[in-house]
Specification:
Blueprint: E1 2-7, E2 12-17, E3 29-30, E4 34-38, E5 44-48, E6 51-55, E7 59-63, E8 68-73, E9 78-82, H1 84-87, E10 111-113, H2 116-133, H3 140-161, H4 164-168, H5 170-186, H6 193-199, H7 204-212, H8 218-236, H9 241-247, H10 253-264, H11 268-277
Antiparallel strand pairs: 1-2, 2-9, 3-8, 4-7, 4-9, 5-6, 5-8, 7-10
Helix pairs in contact: 2-3, 5-8, 8-10, 8-11, 9-10
Length: about 280
């Protein structure tokens, strides 16, 4: 069962389906769309960016388009997928937008655990989604976007309320979110904390002190994003190490290689060989 919405004037796409939507991902590849995967009565097993992942029952996982995904096992799933044109046309950094709390970057993968009460609410919302997908008229697109906004608001509330850290450190987690959004946009050109600190009207020291409370480092977030992109290009493109380095803003491939080895304990070529041998 796959229900689709297409808006040719904007190029908007919304797909709602069961696990059949994930069948093309029996081998690892970029998920390609903003994606919610919702387990019901059984857990599911995936790989996200090469890392094995078990999703418990009555739980929603959120993925960004650039994350690499592999379906290992999953039954009775509900899957929502949409593109930037469907929901993120203005691309503003709001808490419930595509640069919001749920999709704020690749430094963490949000898991939304549904209580029995929330399961009922999300199930009702899902039924309204399905009904609206069968109602083709001139306000269908607007209705579907409103429903997705409601879905994301509800998911964001659960995510915020489920974490004592998020509740007590709201302004600090907001700064961390904004930092991740900026890194996602600029990591290929800007590798220094100073650049991002200036964009956020903070000093590098303030960022370091604030992020330390979450056991994170601004420089490490930048480096981890660079390494993640390097991994993706090593595994899923035919680019040489030199071409990858140039694409990620390094004039000298040896500088990227040293950073990669520092974080992964492997050289880029060792990582590529090891990972391709294991798949």
């Amino acid at each position: 069962m796959i229900k689709e919405f297409r808006e040719f004037s904007t190029g908007a796409i919304l797909n709602i389906a069961n696990e059949s939507l994930l069948e093309p991902f029996k081998t690892t590849k970029p998920i390609g769309l903003f994606t919610f995967i919702w387990t019901k009565d059984s857990e599911a097993h995936f790989e996200v960016d090469g890392v094995p992942f078990t999703l418990g029952t009555n739980t929603i996982l959120a993925l960004t388009p650039v994350q690499n995904f592999k379906l290992i096992e999953g039954k009775n799933l509900i899957v929502y997928q949409f593109n930037r044109e469907f929901y993120c046309i203005k691309d503003h950094d709001k808490e419930v937008g595509c640069a919001g709390l749920i999709f704020f970057g690749n430094d963490f993968i949000p898991i939304i655990n549904l209580s029995e009460n929330e399961q009922t609410k999300f199930s009702l919302l899902h039924e309204v989604f399905l009904d609206e997908l069968d109602t083709e008229d001139n306000i269908q697109a607007e209705m579907l976007r409103m429903l997705m906004a409601r879905f994301m608001i509800k998911a964001t509330r659960i995510l915020k309320n489920s974490s004592d850290t998020l509740k007590s450190e709201a302004s600090k987690i907001d700064l961390l979110r904004h930092f991740n959004v900026l890194v996602e946009s600029h990591f290929k050109e800007e590798h220094s904390v100073t650049f991002y600190a200036e964009k956020l009207f903070k000093s590098p020291k303030t960022l370091s002190n604030t992020f330390a409370k979450f056991n994170k480092s601004p420089l490490k977030i930048i480096h981890n994003r660079i390494v993640l992109e390097t991994k993706r290009q090593l595994l899923y493109t035919d680019k040489t190490a030199k071409e990858i380095a140039y694409d990620i803003g390094f004039d000298d491939a040896s500088h990227l290689s040293r950073l990669f080895k520092k974080i992964t304990s492997l050289s880029p070529s060792q990582f590529q060989k090891q990972h391709k041998n294991s798949h």
